[in-house]
Each structure stands twice: as C-alpha cells, then as structure tokens.
Design brief:
Helices cover 38% and strands 15% of the residues. The chain is α+β, with helices and mostly antiparallel strands and 127 residues long. The structure holds FE2/S2 (inorganic) cluster (FES).
Length: 127
C-alpha cells in the first residue's frame, strides 16, 4: 500500500554532546525548508515528510531516505532541497550527487555504527 507518491524519512536524531548526528548537522533547518518547498511545489498531497531516528550514517548527516525507490541522501543542506523537490519529487529524477549508491558500503557503515553504539551502551552500563 502506498498512500503517497513519495514518503520521505528525515533523520532528526539528537546525539549526546560531541557525538556526530543529524541534529548537530542541522537537520531541523533542512526539514523546515523541505516541508515549505513541498507545499510551495503543490506536492503536499503527494509527498509525505516524516521525521525519524538515526538511519546509521551519523557522520554524514543530515540524512534522509525516500520511498518507494529507497533513495538514501546524505549531507543534505537547505540549499539542496529545492533541487530535490523539483528534480526528484516533481520530475522523478533522484539527485545523483547527493545519493548513496554503494549499497554494500552503506550497509557496512550502518553495521559498524550500530556495533559502536552497542559497545558504548555496554560500557556505560558497566560504569
Ligand atoms: S543521527 Fe542521523 S543517521 Fe544517525
């Protein structure tokens, strides 16, 4: 079931001080521009924008994933948003320069970050 043409998940995860994450990279500002540009383009009923927690590429935030294609964008800046809305959401052409295209590398990076996070939590529990 796909109630919308596109569904965008924008990571707004906050991390503790000194740990890289999308919020520290300015994801809230990008999110605000994204919501405004979607409305401005008349795509409010076709593009659903949802915030989410960490996608696992924390050093390269702000990150977002667009379905149904499963396009993963990294280092998205507010200035990139009009192009994403125009090219991808209106034109159906994902913005290649912001896309992660090496699926194996993305998987490895996410798994490594998950391992690090779990190790940090385990160390915290030990005190
Ligand atoms: S904090 Fe956004 S991907 Fe991890």
């Amino acid at each position: 079931m796909e109630p919308f043409k596109y569904h965008v998940y924008m990571c707004t995860q906050q991390k503790p001080e000194g740990i890289p994450g999308c919020a520290a990279h300015g994801s809230e500002a990008v999110l605000n521009v994204l919501r405004a540009e979607v409305v401005k383009a008349g795509l409010d009923d076709e593009v659903q924008v949802t915030t989410c927690g960490s996608l696992g590429l924390c050093e390269r935030g702000p990150n977002m994933v667009v379905y149904p294609e499963g396009v993963w964008y990294s280092k998205v800046q507010a200035a990139d948003v009009p192009e994403i809305v125009r090219e991808h959401f209106k034109g159906g052409r994902p913005v290649a320069r912001l896309m992660n295209t090496d699926v194996a590398a993305v998987r490895t990076e996410i798994q490594e970050n998950r391992r690090k996070a779990r190790a940090a939590m385990a160390a915290q529990k030990k005190g």
